[in-house]
Amino acid sequence: xxxxxxxxxxxxxxxxxxxxxxxxxxxxxxxxxxxxxxxxxxxxxxxxxxxxxxxxxxxxxxxxxxxxxxxxxxxxxxxxxxxxxxxxxxxxxxxxxxxxxxxxxxxxxxxxxxxxxxxxxxxxxxxxxxxxxxxxxxxxxxxxxxxxxxxxxxxxxxxxxxxxxxxxxxxxxxxxxxxxxxxxxxxxxxxxxxxxxxxxxxxxxxxxxxxxxxxxxxxxxxxxxxxxxxxxxxxxxxxxxxxxxxxxxxxxxxxxxxxxxxxxxxxxxxxxxxxxxxxxxxxxxxxxxxxxx
Amino acid sequence: xxxxxxxxxxxxxxxxxxxxxxxxxxxxxxxxxxxxxxxxxxxxxxxxxxxxxxxxxxxxxxxxxxxxxxxxxxxxxxxxxxxxxxxxxxxxxxxxxxxxxxxxxxxxxxxxxxxxxxxxxxxxxxxxxxxxxxxxxxxxxxxxxxxxxxxxxxxxxxxxxxxxxxxxxxxxxxxxxxxxxxxxxxxxxxxxxxxxxxxxxxxxxxxxxxxxxxxxxxxxxxxxxxxxxxxxxxxxxxxxxxxxxxxxxxxxxxxxxxxxxxxxxxxxxxxxxxxxxxxxxxxxxxxxxxxxxxxxxxxxxxxxxxxxxxxxxxxxxxxxxxxxxxxxxxxxxxxxxxxxxxxxxxxxxxxxx
Lengths: 293, 353
Known about the structure:
heterodimer; A: MetI-like fold; 73% helix; globular; B: alpha+beta; Rossmann fold; CATH 2.40.50.140; 2 domains; 6-stranded mixed β-sheet; 8 helices
C-alpha cells in the first residue's frame, strides 16, 4: 500500500508546479474573460457580463479582425517558406560527407538565439541608414537604396516572416533530415532503375513517403507562428500602423497598454482555442500507429 | 537481350576495397548467380551493373556498349530488391505500371501490359491493393511483375528470396527459374544461399573478399572446387577437410588417418577434402580406415554420422535407417574418385581441372 501511495507523493511537486504556473492562471484568465475588468478603473475584477467580450471580438472589433488577418497572412507565408526551405536544404544536406555533417552541426545555432534578440538584430540589419541588409539590397537593386523596409506595411510583415524563418528553417531542416534518413533507400533506387529522373524520383517516391514528416513540420510551425510575439515587440512594435500586430501582440496591447484585462483574456482564449485545436491534431498525427499512413 | 561484361572492375571506398580488379563475361540469356558470404562484394558488383554505384576503375558493358557514365534509367535494366523496393503509396497496378508510365505508355495499353505481367506471376486479383496489404511472397511477385513488365535487356536480382519463409522460398525459386527460362533475359542474381545458386544458375561465380574464386557451372563448382574456400562454402553439411602431409600420391594426417590420392607431382603440407555423401561407414575391419562413432544425427532424409578417425572428425551421410551406438568401432571407406586435394599454402586444388 505504501508503494502505491509513494508514486503520487513523488509526482506531487511537479503536479503542484504545473497547477500553480499553468492551470491556475489559465483558469483565472478564463473566468476573467467573462467579466468586465479595466485596471484603469479598479484593481479588483468587475461584474460578470457573460459572453459579451467574445461577441465584441468576433463581430464588432476592427482591431481584432485586423490582427486575425495579419496573423493569418503571417502564418501562411511563414509556414510555406519554412517548409519549402527546410525541405530544400534537407535534400541538399542528405548526402554523406564531412562538409555535410559539419553543416548539419552548425544548423542548430540560429535556434539557440533568443527570439527577442533575433528581432533586435534584424531591426539593425534593416535599418534604413546603417542596416547591412538595406545596404546589400540597395547595392544589388539600385532603386531600393535607402529604402525604409520597416516603414512599409507589406515589407515589414515580410521582414518579420524573414526573421522568423531565419530562426526556424535550420531546426526544421534537421527534422526533415531525420525523416529522410528514416526512409528506406530501395524504393528510390527502384524508381531510378525503372527509368525515373531525379526530379521524378523526388515527386513520385520521396515526397509521398515524406508527407507525414512534412505535415508534422507544418503543423508544429503553424502553432509557433500563431503565437508570434517576441520579434513583433523588438523588431516592428506591431507597426507601421497595425500592419504587423499579431493576435498575441494584440492581447499584450489590450492588457498592458489599455489595461482591459477582461477583453484581453477573451481574445487570448480565442487564440488558445485555435492552438489547442492544432495541438490535438498534431498529437493525433505523431501518435498514430506506424503503418497506418 | 544482351551480354554483360565487367572488365577489370574495382570498387573502393577510401582504403576499403569491396571489389578488386574483377572481370566477368555474362552471356546473352544466361542465368548468372553471384554467390558468396556477406561482404564478399557480390551486391556491390550488381549495384555497379545497375548504375547505383560507380566503379572506381574498369569498364562495364551492356550489349557491347560502355555504360559507366550512364545513369540507371538509361541502362535498360530491371532490378528486384531484397526488401522488394515497392512504392508504398501506390496500388499494385500503379507499382507494376510505373516503368511504363515513365516511358509515356498511357491508358488502355498500359493497363493491358500491366495485366499481362501480373498474370505471369498470378497477381491479377490483387491489382487494387497496396503493398502493405500483401504478404511477403505477394510483394516479391509484384516486384517481379514490375521487372518483367517492360522486357528489359538485363534482370538484376539482389537476394530476392531471403525475406521469404522457407516454404515460400522454394516455390518462388521455381517461379523465378521458370520466368527466366520463358523470357530468356540475361539475369544476374545475387545470393548467399548455395541451394539457390545450385538450383537456379547456368553458371555460378563464387566470390570472397572482393574476388571471384571460381566461375563455372554448378556441377563443376560442386565436383571440382577450385580452392579451399569454394570447397568449404558449397555443400551442406560442408565438405570434410583434413589437414596433413602429402607425398608420393599418399595423404597422411595425425593419428593414422591416410588416403591414396593418385596425385603424383605434389609433396608437402596439404588438405584432403571429401564430401559427407562420398564417405561410407562400414562394419569394423571392412574399410580403409579404422574409426569410432562420435555422434549420430537423424535429419529426416538421412543420418549424419560423425566419426573420429585418428585426430580428425569426419562427417558421413548414411541412409536414414542406419543406426549405431556412440563409441562403437567402425571402418570408413572413402570414394577414391571423389577425393579433393588442396595445397595447404596456396589453398588451390591440386588435381587437374
